Amino acid sequence: MKKILDIITDEMRKAFAANGYDENFAKVTLSNRPDLCEYQCNGAMAAAKTYKKKPIDIANGVVEQLKDSKVFEEVNAVMPGFINLKVDASFLSDYMNGMKDAKKLGMDEVENPETIIIDYGGANVAKPLHVGHLRSAVIGEALKRMGRFVGHKVIGDVHLGDWGLQMGLIIEELKNRKPELPYFDPNFTGEYPEEAPFTISELEEIYPAASGKSKVDEAFKERAQEATFKLQSGYAPYRAIWKHIMNVSLKDLKRNYANLDVDFDLWKGESDAQPYIPGLIKDLQDKGLAYESQGALVVDIAEPTDTKELPPCIVRKSDGAALYATSDLATIVEREEDFKPDHYIYVVDKRQELHFTQVFRVAKKAGIVPADRKMDFVGFGTMNGKDGKPFKTREGGVMRLENLIADIDEAAYNRIMENRTVSEDEAKKTAEIVGLAALKYGDLSNQATKDYVFDIDRFSSFEGNTGPYILYTIARINSILKKYQDTCENTENGEILPPSAEPEKTLMLALSRYSDVMLTCFEELAPHKICAYIYELSNALNHFYHETKIIAEEDKKKQAGYISLVTLTRNVLMTCINVLGFDAPERM
Questions:
Q1: What CATH number should be reported for the domain holding residue 38?
Q2: Model confidence over 35-54: pLDDT tens digits?
């Protein structure tokens, strides 16, 4: 089903061409003066320079061509040469009826589907998820769902931090605490235990203790570095401990991500890239790209068009150790072998922008990926407390993600219980759905690159630009539909009739933009624009509800049309929130 903007633009193209003007001047946009018109075309202004005519003369000629168009109710040329457009009511209702009966509500999937890898999550094993992991998980999950919805094959990879010094620190601390374990007995020759010698709670206590010790005990740190080296060299006892760490951590990570309704197709980590590093380094050297600088191996990434100086990418330290850049490049080598993706998207803290600029440029320079491969860095800002500083617990520590979720669920529960329209048990179940919506919408409604203040009271409010407000709108529609079914004999889906009043037309105009929003927002990797759209749509629905007698409407044909219109609104809202990564309860 064609996007409404494309239909309107086609009409304008024909009108421009009929007057002998280039069709490219027929660009149509949403009106920036909705009090005057619904869409506008400023092409006459640009065409005036090309054709050496007054803009208003060009505009008047185009308007004359459109007088019999079935798409427009009103077309006006306004000085100095703007063309104001109002959509025809019958055309709009026909478009609504097409949407309600079409697959995906009339949104056509992309013509050329891509294989896309989204790298998001980035959790470290042996550590609990905390608020710092929220944005990557929520934004990445939304982008994954958005991409799939418009027709791409999207693969989500958590890309775990499961290699490096933190593993050596855990191993060495475990050795101090439980030296009797077989992993530390050089004479042990049997099978290592299948059960881990620690629980997730113990593991989460071991790492910070070991990390703190390494900062004050140089000998301990050196032993941890040696343990890391032995692990990475394939030392069997330490590999067995590492497998225990992975198994225990993954189980807990999957549980916590599931609480966020976030899942991954790949649970790979830095360790998976290690076998590719020697070949990567050799390839960079053989191609003359990597050279020694102060003992380290580096690759220049600067280009003549750069507006600021960019340092070389270090791919091997002077002590022979690999770095994050090495691991990320090796991961791209692995992904090219396994998937040959058309597009890479990395959802990471915006402070990592230089790192990914270096990685992308080396990948293209070395031919790991083609020069035209799409590689996007979606850098996100910080989630701050009301004091404007990074969000902390009341005690000043980093808050665990499961505690944050529990807090916002409680806030949602209290809001629901204020109304006392549902039982306590139902309120608790509903609060979990509403709490997740409050958390995700509160994050996603902000442009990813911007820092934002996490305000639990505002995010859990049923009023304003919040997740609960969107869900409340859906619940209101459900209530209307239930009343209609309970009170009306004929509850078949009716034809949506041409709008007879402003609130009805405003709602239809908002609905008509759905396809364009869904496709454009993924192209721009901008989930915040879907949030802005469903907030606008919810406002339009609520305005229509307050100004229109739906259940009390005596004209049954008109009433059935209203019911079809609000049902379409619910379906659009439900589709959008599902793509953003949350659900709605039946009632609130």
A1: 3.30.1360.70
A2: 899 999 999 999 999 999 99
